[in-house]
């Protein structure tokens, strides 16, 4: 599934990330208005008890929800908007075709929505339509996959792919720090995506801190259950002995775990990525190789709605001294294991 201004990103799915609960806590109150009612996941965060502000129409445009993480992005946006009596959410059908998504955003611009939230199928390809909205006086909240220029958005919010790999590497490093000649392998995502390269770089940089650990194999999959199973089967056949696996994506991790079960292997620990409900449940059950997952939080879409509402109402972010919302918000890639999985269970996506 994604580029911060520091680590720009794209994503087929952008994928699979929450620490959004902690990283976006200050955003929940940024609009200083009263929510309608309480819903799960990102909406477990507190909202201000002040009276509603002026009515805001938010246009929301994202890619096609062809992946669990992307579907969770849409759900989080809808649920967050539904909390507020002063918000109307105009949501597009979503498309991975850039021309079609541009057309959908232009329709929202023509409707004169108050603010736009855009998760582009391709940040570079959609930069011009972001610029068009900004020039029309419609502020843009750029969600995760970043536009080519900051002139195309007022605020960027998204995940940290480098941080995912870094935290996965340190988690594995701490688990194996006392093991001599430890061996690890990596099941990456699509290698043509910048986000995949960032996750691998973060992982490799973390492992430099553990001289007893060597990465002995890496295989790229395609963020799907089928590819995860096929590529993991190849890794298992080629590597009869290793101590840990870093898998970039919990969706492809479902397939990877099938391959592990079919091979009858239980002699290593596995760390996943993104924060799927199935991964949380497996971690809680603790009867297999999956011991942790590193978040890439889809709750960022809920926070994007908060930011959009604040922008349209001329408010800042609660908890910060500034009168304006930040120019960018990078979410933290928390590691979820058996010790804290209960805290994050409600944020898991299907």
From TrEMBL:
It is found in: Cell envelope. SUPFAM superfamilies: Periplasmic binding protein-like I. InterPro entries: Peripla_BP_I, SBP_2_dom, TAT_signal. The keyword Signal applies. Pfam families: Peripla_BP_4. The keyword Signal applies. Residues 34-47 have a biased composition (Basic and acidic residues). Residues 30-53 are annotated as: Disordered. Gene3D superfamilies: 3.40.50.2300. It comes from the Bacteria. Keywords: Signal. Residues 58-315 form the Periplasmic binding protein domain. Belongs to the bacterial solute-binding protein 2 family. This is Substrate-binding domain-containing protein. It comes from Streptomyces thermocoprophilus.
């Amino acid at each position: 599934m994604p580029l911060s201004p520091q680590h720009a990103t794209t994503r087929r799915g952008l994928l699979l990330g929450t620490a959004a609960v902690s990283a976006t806590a200050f955003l929940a109150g940024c609009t200083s208005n009263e929510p309608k009612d309480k819903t799960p996941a990102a909406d477990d965060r507190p909202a201000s008890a002040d009276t509603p502000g002026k009515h805001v129409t938010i246009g929301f445009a994202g890619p096609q929800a062809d992946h669990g993480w992307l579907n969770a992005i849409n759900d989080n946006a809808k649920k967050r908007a539904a909390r507020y009596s002063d918000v109307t959410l105009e949501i597009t059908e979503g498309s991975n075709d850039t021309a079609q998504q541009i057309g959908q955003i232009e329709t929202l611009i023509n409707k004169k929505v108050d603010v736009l939230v855009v998760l582009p199928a391709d940040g570079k390809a959609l930069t011009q339509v972001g610029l068009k909205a900004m020039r029309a006086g419609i502020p843009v909240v750029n969600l995760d996959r970043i536009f080519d220029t900051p002139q195309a958005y007022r605020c960027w919010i998204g995940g940290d792919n480098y941080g995912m790999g870094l935290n996965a590497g340190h988690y594995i490093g701490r688990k194996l720090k006392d093991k001599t000649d430890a061996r690890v392998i990596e099941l990456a995502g699509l290698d043509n995506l910048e986000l995949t390269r960032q996750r691998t770089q973060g992982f490799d940089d973390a492992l430099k801190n553990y001289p007893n650990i060597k990465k002995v194999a890496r295989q790229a999959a395609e963020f799907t259950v089928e590819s995860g199973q096929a590529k993991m089967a190849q890794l298992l056949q080629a590597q009869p002995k290793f101590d840990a696996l870093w898998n970039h994506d919990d969706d492809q991790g479902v397939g990877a775990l099938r391959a592990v079960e079919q091979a009858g292997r239980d002699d290593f620990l596995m760390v996943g990525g993104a924060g799927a409900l199935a991964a949380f449940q497996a971690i809680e059950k603790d009867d297999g190789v999956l011991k942790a997952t590193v978040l890439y939080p889809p709750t960022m879409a809920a926070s994007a709605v908060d930011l959009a509402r604040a922008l349209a109402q001329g408010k800042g972010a609660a908890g910060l001294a500034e009168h304006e919302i930040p120019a960018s918000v990078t979410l933290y890639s928390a590691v979820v294991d058996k010790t804290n999985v209960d805290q994050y269970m409600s944020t898991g996506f299907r």
